């Protein structure tokens, strides 16, 4: 039997590693990261498999450089996937000169869209609006929404104007569209054309319903939402989720169909109430336009919204996790669900609540959760699931011990490890240059 001198073997291995150029080792690791990213991008249903085991330990001073490196690798990974168009007609004189582009949707007919830019690009990048049309004949609504996008006096802005793929499925929040919006978010975030903190969703009538629901669903990516001539029942678009974004809502006084005027007033009452509880956190302008029916003044929404920017890493928020078309999101702000919760869309208790707060003075995270019914009037404890809480040094002091109080009990009290794999995982989860987190705390739920 052969016997090895372990000390000699270790020295020999170290010597061989020294002979391998650092650039080659780095290149191999970079390739692994890009491969991992591409697998995550292709997983459009978001299976939740985001673990990346191989990553360097970081010091606080290394974090910024490493974030830049990881974001550049994310951009490289995206080169094999679809991107927004790059060519535009020079000074189009008529709407017919604007080209129509197309997205291939998952489980749905293709979605045509216009993509326009108004004026010269600002130094910080264009604000961008997703502008959803109403439920009339789709060709007419598509062109009309494009025309309105040019008319709005909101300065140097950019617009995505999609056309509903099928009039038989006239809903902007169906699952096939969710995949499209998540692809759009990914494309916006990697494109230096845009300001990642100035993305807005808006729409008229059916587009108003859509932008209200989508605004609550994707609030962590948005600077604002602007439904018009709509009025969702509030359980479809929980106002709590809008805490850190600007919310504009315009509806006519006499827009009685489906109770749009009453539902808009109900939204105003709730937003006013939340604004009193959290001053400055629920910026909103909800207006019942006097003397108007379903046709209103649409011009007031975007000039107001475009003033506001996103808060990408709030230290205090509540997330109502609700389903759209049977699908729940797996992340919000800095929380990622890693094992499923005991909720389903058809159940009485069909949504979850996470209340997240950081006390910077004591370096403590407070987290409370529950499962709730649709109108949030009933709740009970969660009985399954786990989450990762991602953290950055502007949210909490990463150089000190961090305490976590979960549902009133201390469950964590130690320093967290700063690691490259946290940057990689959070980049893949959030697809967001503002949310590449160096630290995380794994937490098993009740």
Automatic annotation (TrEMBL):
Against Gene3D superfamilies, the record matches this protein to:
alpha/beta hydrolase
Question: Does the keyword field hold Iron-sulfur?
Answer: no
Q: Where is the signal peptide?
A: 1-24
InterPro entries named in the record:
AB_hydrolase_fold, Plant_Biomass_Hydrol_Est
Q: Which SUPFAM superfamilies match?
A: alpha/beta-Hydrolases
Keywords for the protein's UniProt record, in alphabetical order = Signal
Source organism, top-level taxon: Bacteria
Protein name stated in the entry: Esterase
**The organism of origin for this protein:** Sphingobacterium bovistauri
């Amino acid at each position: 039997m052969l016997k090895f001198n372990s000390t000699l073997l270790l020295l020999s291995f170290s010597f061989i590693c020294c002979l391998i150029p650092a650039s080659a080792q780095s290149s191999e690791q970079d390739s692994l990261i890009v491969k991992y990213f591409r697998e995550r991008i292709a997983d459009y249903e978001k299976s939740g498999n985001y673990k990346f085991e191989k990553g360097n330990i970081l010091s606080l001073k290394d974090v910024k450089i490493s974030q830049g490196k990881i974001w550049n690798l994310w951009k490289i990974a995206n080169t094999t996937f679809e991107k927004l168009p790059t060519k535009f007609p020079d000074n189009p004189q008529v709407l017919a000169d604007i080209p129509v582009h197309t997205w291939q949707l998952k489980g749905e007919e293709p979605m045509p869209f216009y993509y326009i830019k108004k004026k010269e690009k600002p130094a910080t990048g264009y604000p961008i609006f997703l502008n959803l049309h109403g439920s009339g004949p789709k060709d007419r609504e598509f062109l009309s929404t494009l025309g309105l996008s040019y008319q709005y006096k909101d300065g140097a802005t950019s617009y995505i104007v999609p056309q509903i793929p099928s009039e038989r499925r006239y809903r902007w929040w169906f699952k096939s569209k969710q995949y499209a919006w998540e692809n759009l978010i990914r494309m916006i975030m990697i494109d230096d054309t845009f300001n990642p903190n100035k993305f807005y969703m808006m729409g008229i009538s059916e587009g108003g319903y859509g932008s209200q629901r989508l605004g609550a669903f994707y609030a962590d990516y948005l600077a604002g939402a602007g439904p018009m001539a709509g009025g969702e029942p509030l359980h479809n678009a929980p106002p709590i989720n809008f805490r850190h974004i600007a919310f504009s809502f315009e509806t006519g006084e006499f827009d009685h169909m489906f109770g749009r005027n009453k539902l808009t007033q109900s939204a105003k009452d709730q937003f006013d109430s939340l604004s009193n509880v959290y001053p400055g956190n629920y910026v909103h302008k909800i207006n019942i336009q006097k003397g108007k029916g379903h046709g209103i003044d649409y011009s007031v929404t975007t000039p107001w919204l475009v003033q506001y920017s996103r808060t990408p890493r709030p230290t205090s928020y509540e997330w109502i996790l609700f389903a759209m078309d049977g699908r729940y999101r797996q992340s919000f702000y800095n929380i990622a669900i890693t094992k499923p919760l005991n909720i389903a869309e058809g159940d009485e208790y069909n949504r979850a609540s996470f209340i997240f707060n950081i006390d910077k003075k004591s370096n403590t995270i407070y987290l409370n959760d529950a499962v709730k019914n649709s109108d949030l009037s009933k709740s009970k404890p969660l009985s399954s699931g786990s989450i990762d809480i991602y953290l950055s040094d502007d949210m909490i002091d990463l150089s000190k011990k961090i305490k976590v109080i979960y549902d009133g009990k201390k469950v964590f009290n130690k320093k967290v490890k700063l690691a490259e794999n946290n940057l990689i995982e959070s980049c893949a989860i959030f697809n967001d240059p503002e949310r590449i987190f160096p630290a995380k705390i794994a937490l098993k739920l009740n």
